[in-house]
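Same chain as my last thread, 393 residues:
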Amino acid sequence: MKRVLILAVAWGMLAAGALGQTPGVTDTTIKLGSFIAQSGPVAVIGIPVMKGAQAWYSYVNDVLGGIHGRKIQFLALDDAFNPANTVAVVKRLVEQENIFALVNPLGTIGMAAVWNYILQNKVPVVSPHMNWLTLASPTVSHVFALQPNNESFGRAAAQYAVLETKAKRIGIAVVEDAMGTELLNFALDELKYWGLQPVVVVKYPGTETNFSAYAQVLRQSKAEAVLLFSYLADAAKLIVECDLLGYKPQFIGINTITLQLFDLAGKAAEGVVFPGFGTDPQDPTSPAAAKMREIYARYYPGEVMNAYAMIAFVGAQLVTKALQDAGPNLTREAFIAALNKVKDWNADGMIPPITYTPDDHYGIKTLWMNQLKTVDGVRTAVFLKEWNWAANR
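reply #2:
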């Protein structure tokens, strides 16, 4: 009996050790974690991001039966887009919740605050909703970007101003944080490539609420085109202030600009150009968008699915594809190996195709340029053209 007891204890210790090698995985569950602002100034983005991801994970559990018999637990914690909160949230997810991977996190400033921690703990990161180039350059073995990065957005905005608007006087309005700084540097470098420099660079803190003075500076610069390296609410306030002054340059934004700008800025949003990298979830011609809306409505009836929810939904699909492809004996190593084999995946046409290799975790590289317009009395985003900055040089 004593020998049997010793063997049982030893076997239990070995089993516990084996389980400990794969954080967040049990015979019945896979625990995924995220930091997503659901309060504060960026909640208008964070809430649909959270819902888009949650809708797909719930559908996988409820309709598809999970992943190899395991149900997904998606723990999205609110960091209010505050880097100090992000640090606490990520430490909780890793050290207390013991997550398998960090998926669908939102915000460059938050990721910058926990980046060294992520590297040290080798936590897999998939489909971060941010434009930070550091995610993919140089390639990090356990980090997989989905959406285009700040190099693509910064250079594309500058290129569009030069090549499409033919503007000689180009201004830049930029938020002073990690995202804004990166965008600004790439835009300045791209303008230099074309023999130009901005006539004005207006910088504002991320906590700014009054944009009247910044609008005055832009108007005085007589910039013909203004690059908007701003979050949605900031961009709306700045555009409205410029409109009140009768100053109407060609505004060119980044992916933070969506059709929602019309809701916040009204007629002042007319004509704003911005890059997209996904099909409008309300597109009546897309079967994939229709299926997405159907799944979303299952969990959030009566709510309109927007672009933020769409890309989070797609990002969640990428996560579950890799989990499925990794096989029933799930480990972080198998998960990463499965991601490195993703080739020409486009979520049934919802995004430009992406391919990962062990040396390339960039994700989407081609942008779809759009313009906010009122067509037959309906405010919409009109597709202009595909845009790849490297190919345009």
